[in-house]
């Protein structure tokens, strides 16, 4: 299945902040985690992730530092800041409302206008 760019873009900030809430991470590991969490349905590129990380850093939601990796190459590690944690909490509240609305529209109960679509009717 192909997930539309608009939906991916809308979910990008809470997804990355949520991953960083699990603990510090670096770019490639974040990309792998997104793929893992989505069961392979979301496969972001570097070109999608790094501009977002840089924006989140500029906004103060993410902090970073360079660390030496086991492979010998330094990697930029990102961590959630206090501002990022507050932003994530706000995003969670917003997405919960959106998810609840979608569930009500899609699940439809008999007598609900959305029920005919959920049941495959016209």
Give an account of the 3D structure.
The chain has 5 helices and 3 strands. It is α+β, with helices and mostly antiparallel strands. Strands 1-3-2 form a 3-stranded antiparallel sheet. Helix 1 crosses helix 4. The protein is globular.
Q: Outline, from the CA principal axes?
A: globular
Major beta sheet summary: 3 strands, antiparallel
Percent strand: 5-15%
Residue stretches low in confidence (pLDDT < 50, at least 5 long) are none
List the helices and strands and how they pair.
Blueprint: H1 5-22, E1 25-26, H2 27-37, H3 46-58, E2 62-68, E3 74-80, H4 82-107, H5 115-118
Antiparallel strand pairs: 1-3, 2-3
Helix pairs in contact: 1-4
Short précis:
The chain is 59% helix and 13% strand. By secondary structure, it is of the alpha+beta class. It has a 3-stranded antiparallel sheet with strand order 1-3-2.
């Amino acid at each position: 299945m192909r997930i539309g760019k608009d939906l991916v873009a809308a979910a990008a900030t809470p997804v990355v902040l949520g991953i960083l809430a699990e603990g510090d991470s670096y770019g490639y590991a974040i990309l792998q985690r997104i793929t893992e969490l989505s069961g392979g349905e979301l496969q972001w590129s570097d070109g999608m992730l790094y501009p977002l990380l840089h924006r989140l850093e500029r906004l103060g939601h993410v902090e970073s530092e360079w660390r030496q990796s086991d492979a010998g190459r330094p990697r930029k590690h990102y961590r959630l800041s206090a501002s990022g944690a507050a932003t994530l909490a706000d995003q969670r509240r917003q997405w919960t409302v959106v998810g609840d609305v979608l569930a009500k529209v899609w699940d439809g109960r008999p007598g609900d206008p959305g029920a005919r679509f959920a049941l495959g009717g016209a």
